[in-house]
Structures are given as C-alpha cells and as structure tokens.
Write a structure and sequence with these properties.
The structure is a single chain. This protein is 32% helix and 33% strand. It is built from 9 helices and 12 strands. A 12-stranded mixed beta sheet has the order 1-2-3-4-5-12-6-11-10-9-8-7, with helices on both faces. The relative contact order is 0.15.
C-alpha cells in the first residue's frame, strides 16, 4: 500500500487526537489529548506537523519546531505493525529536509528500545533531562544568605526586572514580557506572590517560581505544585540564594495545602541535582537527548 506524507491541516484534528491518544498509553504521566488541548499546544510550541496516510486513514504523524534547545522532533507517533520502524524513519527523513540548521534532536525515555532505533538513524545520545518529585511533609529551614539579602515575593510592578533576571541567569531568552499574566490565566490561584525572589545590591539577583501543577492535578486528582523557572545571576551564585528560595517556595506550597512538588532539570546540571536531592527530591523520570549533525550528511 502507498503511504502519503503531507502537511497537517485543520481537517486532521480528529484523526491526530485519536492517534496521539492511542500510541503513548504507557507514557510517563500521560494526559490524554482533546482538540482544545492539541490546538493550544500547537500554537504555544509553534509546531509543524506531518501526517502519514494510507488509503485515507491516518497511520502516523510527526511534529517538529525550533525551540529553546534548537530544532527538535517533538512527536513521532506511528501505529504498531510490521512497518512501524520504516514509517517512522520516513517521517524523520522528511522532517530532516525541513531543518534549517546543522543539527536536530529529539527526546527519548532513558532505557527505551527506541534509543537504538534513533542511533540507527544517525542520532547520538547527548545528555538528558530529569523530572524530579518530592513529598511536602514538613516546613524547611532556610539556609543563611548574605546579610543584606532580602528574600520576598515579586511585586506587581516588577515583571520587567523579573524577566530580565531569569533571562540573564539562563543566558538566553527564557521568558518574555506578559508571562506573569499568562500564568495567572492558566494556573489559578497563581499570582506574583508565588514568585520568590532574592534582592541584593538593590536588584533582583535570584528567582524561583512556584505554580500549581494544573494539568497533572486536574487529570490525576493530585495536589502537586511545580517549581520553575529558577535562575541566579552568575555573580551571585554559591551564596545559598537558590537554596533559600527553593526552601521558601516549598514552604509556600505547603501552606497552601500542596502535598508534593515537581520540577525539571538537566542531568548535567550537577549543582542543581545535588541541591534538589538534599531537599528530598527523587528522580521520577529520565529522558535522553538524541542529536544528529546534519551538516555531515552528503
């Protein structure tokens, strides 16, 4: 049978929702898609989607974008069958034709058999990402910070300073103006009070954001909070600021009836992973980055 690979259109929404919900049933903390959620994700992530059709039916799809870590294959979903690997490779090759830079990457569950399949396509493991989770079973004592440090919540008029501090701490544009209002709209009862900052030398130098883990709580009936983004200006690191703000954020969540908290961090960020382990976080899930250098392809 002939497989047709083409760009996504609005008419594909029902079949794509069905496909995405069929493929990842065993995925970590998977929350089923609906059309509203899918439309929102496509817009937020600026996804480009390819559909694989066979005799009018959808048998696979792939999505890619140019995100914070480069050009990424976000989804690769193909119905199980004798031709799954071949069809996945066809979709990957089609995406690679559209990549503008020299590299493209994807994220795969650590330990998955699909790591070997990506390796066969020329992708190499390059670091990874942890999802870390902790129980909130008692208030934490804040560590000592420099004498003149003020640890507090963000003020309503300080969004510009907050965004600049986060972006400077990350070294790239992690946030844009208007993000606080977006969080307010999507994370009730979030407000500036949930953003914890350290002020030193009359400026914001460290930040930890706490939020309700809304999608998880809605689907799984949980009371989990989420931490992130978190950043400290390079000049002010190794002063316990991140530790103090993380403890303050965890205590803040406890006081609001939250019983657990989650965050994401790079496996290569050893200082952060060490800090989080000391505060009771454990690795809930581990993903590997698989990257391919397209500039070497002839």
């Amino acid at each position: 049978m002939t497989v047709q690979i083409r760009s996504f259109t609005d008419k594909d929404f029902p079949s794509l929702v069905k496909l995405l919900n069929e493929i990842p049933r065993e995925s970590y903390e998977f929350i089923p898609f609906n059309e509203r959620k899918l439309r929102s994700q496509i817009k937020e992530w600026d996804l480009k989607i390819l559909m694989a059709k066979e005799e009018g039916g959808t048998i696979g799809a792939a999505a890619y974008n140019n995100g914070r870590w480069g050009e990424e294959i976000e989804w690769l979903c193909v119905l199980e069958g004798l031709n799954r690997k071949r069809l996945e490779s066809l979709l990957v090759k089609e995406i690679e034709k559209h990549v503008e830079g020299e590299t493209v990457f994807t994220v795969v569950d650590a330990g998955s058999k699909k790591i070997a399949e990506w390796a066969e396509r020329g992708y190499k493991a390059e670091g990874g990402l942890y999802h870390m989770v902790a129980r909130l079973d008692g208030l934490k004592l804040l560590p000592e910070v420099p004498e003149d440090t003020i640890v507090r919540s963000l003020k309503t008029e300080e969004e510009k300073d907050f965004v600049e501090a986060v972006n400077a701490g990350f070294g790239w544009e992690r946030l844009k103006q208007g993000v606080v209002q977006r969080w307010k709209s999507g994370c009730f009862p979030f407000s500036e009070e949930w953003i914890h900052v350290a002020e030193l030398d009359s400026k914001i130098v460290s930040v930890v954001v706490s939020r309700p883990d809304g999608k998880y709580n809605e689907f799984f009936g949980g009371k989990r909070g989420y931490l992130g983004p978190a950043a400290t200006l390079s000049k002010y690191r190794s002063k316990n600021l991140a530790s103090a703000l993380t403890c303050k954020a965890m205590n803040f969540l406890i006081e609001r009836g939250v019983d657990s908290v989650a965050l994401y961090t790079s496996e290569r960020n050893i200082p952060s992973v060490t800090l989080f382990r000391k505060l009771g976080f454990k690795i809930g899930h581990h993903w590997r980055f698989m990257r391919k250098n397209l500039s070497k392809q002839c």
